[in-house]
Amino acid sequence: MENSFLELLSKRHSFYNINRNLPLSEDEISSLIFEAVKLYPSPFNSQSSRLLVLFADKHHHFWHIVEQKLLVSSPSNKEIAIKQRMLSFAQGAGTILYFIDKDIIREQEKEMPLYAANFKNWAYQSSAMLQFMIWSTLANKDIGASLQHYNPLIDTLVQKEFVISDSWELVAQMPFGGINSIPQPHTFEDIANKIIIQK
Ligand SMILES: Cc1cc2nc3c(=O)[nH]c(=O)nc-3n(C[C@H](O)[C@H](O)[C@H](O)COP(=O)(O)O)c2cc1C
Protein backbone atom coordinates (compact mmCIF):
# COMPACT_ATOMS: atom_id res chain seq x y z
CA MET A 1 0.00 0.00 0.00
CA GLU A 2 1.35 3.40 -0.91
CA ASN A 3 1.91 5.84 1.88
CA SER A 4 3.55 9.18 1.29
CA PHE A 5 4.77 9.50 4.89
CA LEU A 6 6.63 6.17 4.66
CA GLU A 7 8.03 7.32 1.33
CA LEU A 8 9.45 10.40 3.05
CA LEU A 9 10.95 8.19 5.77
CA SER A 10 12.60 6.00 3.14
CA LYS A 11 14.89 8.94 2.22
CA ARG A 12 16.60 8.70 5.61
CA HIS A 13 19.85 6.74 5.64
CA SER A 14 23.07 6.86 7.59
CA PHE A 15 24.93 9.35 5.39
CA TYR A 16 28.69 9.17 6.03
CA ASN A 17 29.89 10.82 2.81
CA ILE A 18 28.90 14.44 3.46
CA ASN A 19 30.22 17.90 2.63
CA ARG A 20 29.82 21.48 3.81
CA ASN A 21 27.58 22.61 0.91
CA LEU A 22 24.12 22.77 2.40
CA PRO A 23 21.00 23.23 0.25
CA LEU A 24 19.51 25.38 3.06
CA SER A 25 20.91 28.24 5.11
CA GLU A 26 22.03 27.67 8.68
CA ASP A 27 19.01 29.72 9.82
CA GLU A 28 16.62 27.57 7.80
CA ILE A 29 18.11 24.41 9.28
CA SER A 30 17.85 25.90 12.76
CA SER A 31 14.14 26.66 12.11
CA LEU A 32 13.49 23.05 11.11
CA ILE A 33 15.17 21.88 14.30
CA PHE A 34 13.10 24.33 16.39
CA GLU A 35 9.92 23.00 14.73
CA ALA A 36 10.88 19.37 15.46
CA VAL A 37 11.58 20.25 19.09
CA LYS A 38 8.02 21.62 19.31
CA LEU A 39 6.53 18.45 17.85
CA TYR A 40 8.36 15.49 19.40
CA PRO A 41 6.52 13.46 22.04
CA SER A 42 7.81 13.19 25.61
CA PRO A 43 6.59 11.35 28.73
CA PHE A 44 3.93 13.41 30.52
CA ASN A 45 4.93 16.17 28.10
CA SER A 46 8.10 16.65 30.15
CA GLN A 47 10.08 17.99 27.12
CA SER A 48 13.33 16.75 28.65
CA SER A 49 15.43 16.86 25.46
CA ARG A 50 18.10 19.52 25.05
CA LEU A 51 20.09 20.26 21.90
CA LEU A 52 23.36 21.94 21.08
CA VAL A 53 23.55 22.79 17.36
CA LEU A 54 27.04 23.48 16.05
CA PHE A 55 27.86 25.03 12.69
CA ALA A 56 31.10 26.02 10.98
CA ASP A 57 34.03 26.60 13.39
CA LYS A 58 32.21 25.18 16.42
CA HIS A 59 31.39 22.04 14.42
CA HIS A 60 35.05 21.64 13.43
CA HIS A 61 36.21 22.30 16.95
CA PHE A 62 33.86 19.62 18.24
CA TRP A 63 35.23 16.90 15.96
CA HIS A 64 38.78 18.03 16.70
CA ILE A 65 38.34 17.54 20.44
CA VAL A 66 36.57 14.20 19.92
CA GLU A 67 39.53 13.09 17.78
CA GLN A 68 42.03 14.17 20.45
CA LYS A 69 40.12 12.30 23.12
CA LEU A 70 39.82 9.14 21.01
CA LEU A 71 43.50 9.20 20.09
CA VAL A 72 44.64 9.31 23.73
CA SER A 73 42.10 6.65 24.73
CA SER A 74 42.76 4.12 21.94
CA PRO A 75 45.64 1.83 20.92
CA SER A 76 48.07 3.49 18.49
CA ASN A 77 47.18 1.10 15.64
CA LYS A 78 43.73 2.75 15.55
CA GLU A 79 45.14 6.19 14.81
CA ILE A 80 44.60 6.22 11.02
CA ALA A 81 41.07 4.80 11.29
CA ILE A 82 40.12 7.34 13.97
CA LYS A 83 41.51 10.25 11.96
CA GLN A 84 39.68 9.13 8.80
CA ARG A 85 36.38 8.74 10.64
CA MET A 86 36.67 12.08 12.42
CA LEU A 87 37.56 13.76 9.12
CA SER A 88 34.45 12.28 7.48
CA PHE A 89 32.28 13.96 10.13
CA ALA A 90 34.24 17.21 10.19
CA GLN A 91 33.85 17.50 6.42
CA GLY A 92 30.12 18.01 6.99
CA ALA A 93 28.51 21.38 7.76
CA GLY A 94 27.30 20.94 11.30
CA THR A 95 26.60 18.65 14.22
CA ILE A 96 23.60 18.34 16.50
CA LEU A 97 24.33 17.16 20.02
CA TYR A 98 21.38 15.61 21.83
CA PHE A 99 21.08 15.69 25.61
CA ILE A 100 18.49 14.86 28.25
CA ASP A 101 18.03 17.22 31.20
CA LYS A 102 18.50 15.17 34.38
CA ASP A 103 16.89 17.94 36.50
CA ILE A 104 13.58 17.34 34.70
CA ILE A 105 13.88 13.61 35.28
CA ARG A 106 14.63 14.12 38.99
CA GLU A 107 11.54 16.35 39.31
CA GLN A 108 9.36 13.73 37.66
CA GLU A 109 10.75 10.98 39.90
CA LYS A 110 9.80 13.07 42.95
CA GLU A 111 6.38 14.05 41.66
CA MET A 112 5.37 10.61 40.38
CA PRO A 113 7.20 7.99 42.50
CA LEU A 114 5.02 5.24 41.04
CA TYR A 115 6.84 5.64 37.71
CA ALA A 116 10.21 6.67 39.15
CA ALA A 117 12.02 3.68 37.67
CA ASN A 118 10.86 4.61 34.16
CA PHE A 119 11.62 8.28 33.73
CA LYS A 120 15.25 8.09 32.67
CA ASN A 121 14.57 5.35 30.18
CA TRP A 122 11.60 7.28 28.81
CA ALA A 123 13.75 10.39 28.44
CA TYR A 124 16.20 8.38 26.28
CA GLN A 125 13.30 7.00 24.24
CA SER A 126 11.84 10.46 23.78
CA SER A 127 15.22 11.82 22.69
CA ALA A 128 15.48 8.96 20.18
CA MET A 129 12.13 10.01 18.71
CA LEU A 130 13.39 13.56 18.34
CA GLN A 131 16.64 12.31 16.79
CA PHE A 132 14.68 10.29 14.26
CA MET A 133 12.39 13.23 13.44
CA ILE A 134 15.31 15.56 12.80
CA TRP A 135 17.30 12.92 10.89
CA SER A 136 14.29 12.30 8.60
CA THR A 137 13.43 16.01 8.27
CA LEU A 138 16.99 16.77 7.16
CA ALA A 139 16.97 13.85 4.69
CA ASN A 140 13.82 15.26 3.13
CA LYS A 141 15.65 18.52 2.53
CA ASP A 142 18.53 16.60 0.90
CA ILE A 143 20.76 16.97 3.92
CA GLY A 144 22.59 13.81 4.95
CA ALA A 145 23.12 12.93 8.61
CA SER A 146 24.27 9.99 10.70
CA LEU A 147 23.96 9.07 14.34
CA GLN A 148 27.11 8.77 16.47
CA HIS A 149 27.78 7.87 20.10
CA TYR A 150 31.08 9.06 21.54
CA ASN A 151 29.42 9.61 24.90
CA PRO A 152 30.18 9.03 27.73
CA LEU A 153 33.89 9.31 26.77
CA ILE A 154 33.48 12.95 25.70
CA ASP A 155 30.85 14.12 28.24
CA THR A 156 33.10 16.17 30.52
CA LEU A 157 34.98 17.63 27.59
CA VAL A 158 31.78 18.79 25.89
CA GLN A 159 30.47 20.34 29.11
CA LYS A 160 33.67 22.28 29.54
CA GLU A 161 34.33 23.34 25.92
CA PHE A 162 30.76 24.41 25.13
CA VAL A 163 29.78 25.57 28.64
CA ILE A 164 26.90 23.16 29.08
CA SER A 165 25.03 22.63 32.37
CA ASP A 166 26.09 19.47 34.18
CA SER A 167 22.42 18.52 34.43
CA TRP A 168 22.50 17.93 30.64
CA GLU A 169 23.52 14.35 29.84
CA LEU A 170 24.85 13.77 26.35
CA VAL A 171 23.07 10.94 24.51
CA ALA A 172 23.94 11.22 20.80
CA GLN A 173 25.79 13.23 18.17
CA MET A 174 24.44 13.82 14.64
CA PRO A 175 26.90 15.19 12.05
CA PHE A 176 25.15 16.47 8.91
CA GLY A 177 25.98 18.09 5.59
CA GLY A 178 25.44 18.15 1.86
CA ILE A 179 25.20 14.69 0.30
CA ASN A 180 28.16 13.41 -1.77
CA SER A 181 26.66 9.99 -2.38
CA ILE A 182 23.49 8.20 -1.36
CA PRO A 183 24.25 5.02 0.61
CA GLN A 184 22.68 1.69 -0.26
CA PRO A 185 19.48 1.18 1.74
CA HIS A 186 20.16 -1.13 4.69
CA THR A 187 19.53 -4.85 4.27
CA PHE A 188 16.40 -6.41 5.72
CA GLU A 189 16.12 -9.60 7.68
CA ASP A 190 12.94 -11.61 7.26
CA ILE A 191 10.36 -9.14 8.51
CA ALA A 192 7.59 -11.74 8.59
CA ASN A 193 9.33 -13.43 11.55
CA LYS A 194 9.33 -10.22 13.57
CA ILE A 195 5.72 -9.19 13.55
CA ILE A 196 2.76 -11.08 14.91
CA ILE A 197 -0.66 -9.96 13.74
CA GLN A 198 -3.65 -11.28 15.62
CA LYS A 199 -7.33 -10.66 14.85
C1 LIG B 1 20.12 3.73 18.66
C2 LIG B 1 21.04 3.76 17.48
C3 LIG B 1 22.39 3.91 17.67
C4 LIG B 1 23.26 4.04 16.59
N1 LIG B 1 24.58 4.30 16.80
C5 LIG B 1 25.38 4.50 15.75
C6 LIG B 1 26.74 4.89 15.96
O1 LIG B 1 27.19 5.08 17.09
N2 LIG B 1 27.53 5.06 14.86
C7 LIG B 1 27.04 4.91 13.59
O2 LIG B 1 27.79 5.10 12.63
N3 LIG B 1 25.75 4.54 13.36
C8 LIG B 1 24.93 4.35 14.41
N4 LIG B 1 23.61 4.04 14.19
C9 LIG B 1 23.11 3.90 12.80
C10 LIG B 1 22.83 2.46 12.42
O3 LIG B 1 24.04 1.75 12.27
C11 LIG B 1 22.02 2.49 11.12
O4 LIG B 1 20.82 3.19 11.36
C12 LIG B 1 21.67 1.09 10.61
O5 LIG B 1 22.83 0.38 10.23
C13 LIG B 1 20.70 1.13 9.42
O6 LIG B 1 21.21 1.94 8.37
P1 LIG B 1 20.45 3.26 7.87
O7 LIG B 1 20.49 4.26 8.99
O8 LIG B 1 21.18 3.71 6.65
O9 LIG B 1 19.02 2.87 7.57
C14 LIG B 1 22.74 3.92 15.27
C15 LIG B 1 21.36 3.74 15.08
C16 LIG B 1 20.53 3.67 16.16
C17 LIG B 1 19.05 3.55 15.93
Write a brief caption for the model.
With 199 residues, the protein is α+β, with helices and mostly antiparallel strands. Helices cover 44% and strands 16% of the residues.
Beta-strand percentage range: 15-25%
The structural domain count equals: 1
CATH architecture assignment: 3-Layer(aba) Sandwich
Kindly report the name of the CATH homologous superfamily: NADH Oxidase
Mean of residue pLDDT values: 97
Chart the SSEs and their pairings.
Elements: H1 4-9, E1 18-19, H2 26-39, E2 49-55, H3 56-73, H4 79-90, E3 94-101, H5 102-111, H6 119-139, E4 143-145, H7 155-161, E5 168-179
Antiparallel strand pairs: 1-5, 2-3, 3-5, 4-5
Helix pairs in contact: 2-6, 3-4
The protein binds flavin mononucleotide.
Characterise this structure.
The protein has 199 residues and is an alpha+beta fold. It is built from seven helices and five strands. Helix 3 runs antiparallel to helix 4. The radius of gyration is 18 Å and the shape is globular. Bound molecules: flavin mononucleotide (FMN). The site of flavin mononucleotide has 8 residues, from loops.
